[in-house]
Design brief:
Length: about 280
């Protein structure tokens, strides 16, 4: 599949602000499953944009706007080609097989508690509710994704970008960010390395949740299949209908935009995302 993506973020302030500093994760990754063939970042007011590769392999841009301004507009335009998975659904992955994998030692970041994904008795009880065949971590991860989808209600406005797993469990509702954190927590509790994935999902039918905004899902490391993505919001394996932008321990590592500024009043934010499939 080939997609064009436009992601616009506009910050507006009731009084002019100065010295705004912004970091963005908006550039789609290039790997064996997708190719980012074009990426442009437009910032108004104009300023010089710098880039670096973070510890998780994400392309990150950052910039500062020093003069007074009452609006900051950020537009990322991308073109991405995604490839079919080419592999069967993951299956028959045992704990011993995972432990013997040479990459496991490098996955410590994805195995324990993180700021948004604190492991504990609440999560353990949730994990115990997932019924799967014994010692098949792949089956458990997929079943856990469906469990989160069925046991929690997709409801915008109940949570915020700062909501933790414990808060979501109490509310029994949330959005894609929350569902991804839940699946990550359950997988890690079972000993499966799991990470947060942000990006976009395309829906030609219009019935896919999260298709008109930044989207999030979870990925688990399941040898020999590698990183396997599952979208608990839509109860489906990640395929060529998804565009991956960034991965990290949780949302805090990959937020699409974050920053600070000098000013007394809080601003407002408006985000518009358009994902279009190109005709072959």
């Amino acid at each position: 599949m080939e997609y064009t993506i436009e992601h616009e973020t506009a910050y507006r302030y009731p009084q002019p602000v100065t010295e705004s500093y912004t970091v963005v994760h908006l550039q789609p990754r290039t790997d064996l499953r997708q190719y980012c063939t074009r990426y442009d970042l437009e910032v108004q007011p104009w300023t010089r944009v710098f880039s670096y590769l973070d510890r998780f392999g994400n392309e990150v841009q950052h910039f500062a706007v020093m003069p007074e301004h009452d609006e900051l507009r950020i537009v990322a335009r991308s073109q991405v080609v995604t490839l079919p998975a080419g592999l069967p659904a993951p299956h028959d992955v045992g704990a011993a097989q995972l432990a013997a994998d040479p990459l496991v030692a490098e996955l410590t970041d994805y195995r324990g508690s993180t700021p948004y994904v604190a492991l504990g008795p609440q999560v353990a009880r949730l994990a115990d509710g997932v019924e799967t065949p014994a010692d098949d971590l792949a089956a458990y991860f997929l079943a856990a994704g469906s469990f989160v989808h069925d046991a929690f209600t997709y409801r915008p406005g109940v949570t915020t970008v700062r909501t933790t797993v414990a808060d979501v469990i109490d509310a029994r509702a949330g959005v894609c960010q929350d569902f991804a954190h839940l699946l990550i927590a359950v997988a890690r509790t079972r000993g499966i390395p799991a990470r947060y994935a942000s990006g976009y999902v395309y829906s030609g039918r219009g019935d896919t949740l999260g298709a008109e905004a930044s989207h999030a899902w979870a990925e688990a490391y399941l040898p020999p299949f590698g990183w396997v993505g599952f979208d608990p919001t839509n109860d489906r394996l990640v395929d060529d209908g998804f565009v991956l932008v960034a991965v990290g321990r949780d949302y805090g590592d990959v937020s699409p935009t974050r920053g600070l500024y000098h000013g007394r009043d809080a601003g407002t934010i408006a985000v518009n995302v358009a994902v279009e499939q190109q005709q072959q």
